[in-house]
Design goal:
Layout: H1 2-25, H2 35-45, H3 49-59, H4 65-100, H5 105-140, H6 145-161, H7 167-192, H8 195-200
């Protein structure tokens, strides 16, 4: 029974851990030397960031329908808008700097729209986490508090940290830890709840 809770919890933590690893390798500054790796890294990251939304989506499976629906819409918004940040401020900006052999005003304009997309995506990420935290606290009470505090703190930090070392890396580790703990407590609540209570919960 314990193993059945730990495996999904590890799966929910995995996207944050992967992103923390990429964060260590993320250039701190975009310039002529770092531009090729900057662009290539964000190509690799395109399918990785949506895994955070997938973890949110799954963690919301046992939430009451209103929380589940709103949270999944927010998770989708995160995947869409943060993917835009990756494409614009990551792939496009790196490609432009490499092609033009330096940072130009065009790159500044590209970063402006990328930052806007990233902030919208991070706000959606925070909203989805607030909803899944609410659902977790409703079902697991005080047992969900440690994971909720860690996940909420990391989600706020994510708003302007991306995955840059060091803050962004620790932010991703916090997201991984928070999702892991919430997954464990949510799974525990489902296992220990009376059968009649589980039966009344709406389907995923």
């Amino acid at each position: 029974m314990a193993r059945s809770r730990w495996l999904p919890a590890a799966g929910h933590a995995l996207p944050g851990l992967i992103l923390a690893g990429f964060g260590v390798a993320h250039p701190l500054v975009l310039d002529t030397a770092s531009a090729p790796w900057w662009a290539s890294l964000h190509v690799v990251l395109l399918p990785v960031f949506p895994l955070l939304a997938a973890a949110q989506w799954h963690l919301l499976s046992s939430a009451p329908r209103p929380l589940r629906s709103a949270g999944r819409v927010a998770a989708f918004g995160f995947a869409a808008f943060y993917g835009g940040l990756d494409a614009v401020a990551g792939i496009a900006a790196g490609t432009v700097v490499h092609a033009q052999h330096g940072v130009t005003p065009i790159v500044g304009a590209v970063f402006d729209i990328g930052d806007t997309l990233g902030h919208v995506g991070a706000a959606c990420f925070l909203a989805a986490n607030l909803l899944l935290i609410t659902a977790a606290v409703r079902s697991a009470s005080w047992r969900a508090v440690p994971g909720a505090v860690i996940l909420l703190s990391a989600s706020v930090s994510f708003f302007d940290s991306h995955i840059f070392w060091p803050r962004g890396v620790f932010t991703m580790l916090g997201i991984a830890a928070g999702m892991f703990l919430i997954s464990l407590t949510s799974g525990s609540a489902l296992v220990t709840a009376p059968a009649s209570t589980r039966d009344r919960r709406s389907p995923s």
